[in-house]
Amino acid sequence: MRDRILESKALSYSVAIFVLSLMMMPIYWTVVTAFKPDTETYVFPPVYFPSNPTFEPFRLLFESYPFMDYVANSLIVTVSTTLIVTLISMMAAYGISLYPFRGGKLMLLFLLATRIIPPLSLLLPFYLVVSYFGLVDTVLSMIIANIYLTYPFAVLIMKAFFDNFPREIIESAIVDGCSRTGALFRIVLPVGAPGIASAGIITFLWTWNEFIYAFVFTSTPKAQPVTVGSFDAIGDVFVHWNQMCAGALVAALPGIIFVFVAQKYLIAGLTSGAVKA
Amino acid sequence: MNASTGSAGRFRLANPRYGLLLNIPGLLIVLLWVVFPALLLFAVSFLRFDNVNPVSFVGFGNYQRLWNSRVFAVSVERVLVFSLGSTALTALGGLVLAMCLSNVRKGGGLLRSLMIIPWAVPAVVSGLIWKWMFSPDFGVLSDLLMKARLIAKPLSIYSDPSLAMWGVIIVDSWTRIPFMGIILLAAILSIPDQIHEAARVDGADTVKRFLYVTLPMIRGPLLIGLMITTIFSFRTIDLIIPLTAGGPGRATYVLGYYIWDQITKSLNFGLGAAAGVVLFLITSLITVVFVYLLREK
User: Fold this and answer.
1) Does A231 contact B128 at a Cβ distance shorter than 8 Å?
2) Is residue B7 very low, low, confident or very high in pLDDT (cuts 50, 70, 90)?
3) Which of A101, A192, B185, B259 could pair covalently with B98 via S-S, beta carbons 3.0-4.6 A apart?
């Protein structure tokens, strides 16, 4: 009897829904607050269901902060990093997986080991290099940093995918007169798209969500990304919580969208990059 | 580690030179982006490098200063508490969710998406929105706990040191449960049904099968999840910065925050680099322990 309860779908659903409701509370609260007028924001006990939702916090946010610039900077940094990292890591993983060379295994091990180095430790050397080259407060400085932050994991994810890629397909293509590089772009790319998409999406999100390096490297809206911008919103003496929540939503939007649109790729990437590598 | 060929067998057109050629850009990234900064970090840690004195070589001087610094000792102690608490809570939450989600069909995709969301939110934003929920004046958490009659008056993590540590631990595990849940769910789903069936035939009940079938079968992924959670929480500061800024007092002043302060406030780069090396060494040590556990069958 006890076993039947423990293994029942009803119990699994109840526990999962209970735990997930707790975990969704911050998200719900952010969304609700972002659409509240001041009168419903600064009250205790708080208002759980706003009676007259408004876009006012968003309007004020974009008016009082250069939030459009933040979004643009984030987009430039994220898209550039993702393109660079995806291309280079795809080549590297294709090479390591299908054309083994001496030192290839060692390099893979090294890439795995770089994940142990705390990015926080390398923040200082990176900052010294960036300021030496006069790149402080540029989007380029963040692209450079994010390449370091995302490249190793991207290779590990893609390598796991290429390892399971049927060799015969590439072999027959090459026998049919396709070059090895041609095989990568014409055959591996389309068929191995899930692996590449996984690595690309995770690179995109990590770069978009990065804060520490961006905070140290940038100081003006000329280069500051959304994460730094939304942090600035609480730097004031008086915190506009509803505007802060509006900013938080903008910053969290790509992540939330990808979770629903590309959940399969996210899960595949995170598990293969972490476990199989 | 299946490094060379995967399940698909040997590749007849192997060509080491081409493989190496493809890896040249990646090698450059590794050398310029990882090896060089790492060497630079070690080099700077042996320098007196602040915004007052001229730069000079001081040998292990910075490390000596760290050794004698009370603030540094506190930060190491704080990060141990933080990391341990966060990893334990993450493992518990991840395991419970993974067990439940492995047993559901309908709506499983949606539940999985919901589980991942906290992972996808920028950590600094997590810190910001939890700061709002923890607000002593208008905080929703205080209200909920008061409605549940668990507390009598609004609580403030900004004045109570032990509450503050709990606060950052909860927020950190909130961001880490998704990853733990994902890899444990994948591990649980990959256990062949026959094994559970066989155990059932042998008379093992649900609890026994969890302890003697499921847990041993997911040992590897669980250890990897624990390892990643531990070393990542050791370096977490992006949610502590907005949430408590290391306070109140030094209640949440973790090792990472010490490094952060040296780089952004005290501008003592030599000391910051030495602390960065210490952080690196501690996480390496943790990794070695976990790798040892993973090898042991």
Assistant:
1) yes
2) very low
3) B185
Contact with chain A for residue B139, Cβ under 8 A: yes
pTM of the full predicted structure? 0.91
Per residue in A193-211, is it b (16+ CB within 10 Å) or e — as a string? Answer: eebbbbbbbbbbbbbbbbb
- Compute the half-sphere exposure of residue A38: CA atoms within 13 Å on the CB side of its CA: 4
CB atoms within 10 A of CB B97: 26
Q: Is B94 on the interface with A (CB under 8 A)?
A: no
Closest CA to B225 of A149, A208, A273: A273
**From the CA atom positions of chain B, what is the Rg in Å?**
23
Which residue from A minimizes the CA distance to B185?
A271
Q: Do residue B259 and residue A120 have CB atoms under 8 angstroms apart? A: yes
Whether the CB-CB separation of B126 and B175 falls below 8 Å is answered with yes
User: Is residue B178 helix, strand or coil?
Assistant: helix
ipTM of the assembly? 0.90
Q: Hey, are the CB atoms on B120 and A17 less than 8 Å from each other?
A: no
Q: Please report, for chain A, the start and end positions of each structural domain, with discontinuous segments joined by +.
A: 2-58, 65-276
pLDDT (tens digit, 9 = 90+) per residue, B282-295?
999 999 999 999 88
**Is the Cβ of B10 closer than 8 Å to some Cβ of chain A?**
yes
A65-276 maps to CATH 3.40.50.10310: no
Question: Which pLDDT tens digit goes with each residue over A182-238?
Answer: 877 787 777 778 889 999 999 999 999 999 999 999 999 999 999 999 888 776 657
List, in order, residues 6 or more apart from B283 with CB less than 8 Å away: A116, A117, A118, B231, B234, B235
Q: Which residue of B has its CA nearest to A275?
A: B221
Cβ contact, residue pair B104, A16, below 8 Å: yes
Residues on chain A touching B183 (C-beta within 8 angstroms): 270-271, 274-275
Q: Is residue B167 less than 8 Å (CB to CB) from chain A?
A: no
Residues ≥6 apart with Cβ < 8 Å to A141 = A130, A135, A217, A218, A223
All structural domains of chain B: 75-255+282-295 (1.10.3720.10)
Mutation pick from B15, B27, B100, B277 vs chain A, by most beta carbons of A within 10 Å, is: B100
